[in-house]
Specification:
Helix content is about 15%, strand content about 55%. The protein is mostly beta strands. It has one domain.
């Protein structure tokens, strides 16, 4: 599966530093695994947008016929909803100072393939300092 993650920084004073990220993709109520990958660390400059390409695949994954048929039907009808879970570390840079890296988790999903083709963006939630 190929997907793009767009990271935006509308702030004109803060730079964001992201550590290496682990991306996991799933689909369906049964959370069927569509694969995982890693993204290299990067810096998000002020007032910038960065597009990251993710490529995941899964081999030899056994799923029930009922679930496989359901996923195939949703894919062909473009009603398939893919969820992405990104685990990373994020820090900030302000006035030339770099401030630590904290663990962060970004959860995205909630839109169908058809909706993304028409420009709809997935809904994402970022969790930092959750305990």
């Amino acid at each position: 599966m190929v997907a793009r993650i767009e990271v935006r920084n509308p702030n004109e004073k803060i730079i964001y530093h992201f550590g290496e990220s682990k991306v996991e993709t799933t689909t369906g109520d049964e959370e069927v695994n569509l694969g995982s990958t890693s993204l290299p660390k990067f810096t998000q400059e002020k007032g910038n947008a960065t597009s990251l390409k993710t490529v995941t695949n899964v081999n030899n994954e056994l799923i029930e016929d009922r679930i496989g048929s359901k996923i195939l039907h949703q894919f062909t009808s473009k009603k398939l909803k893919v969820k992405m879970n990104v685990k990373t570390r994020v820090g900030i840079g302000v006035a030339g100072m770099k401030i630590g890296l904290l663990g962060a988790e970004v959860l995205c999903g909630g839109v169908t393939l058809k909706e993304t083709e028409s420009g709809e963006m997935p809904r994402c939630v970022m969790k930092i300092l959750q305990w």
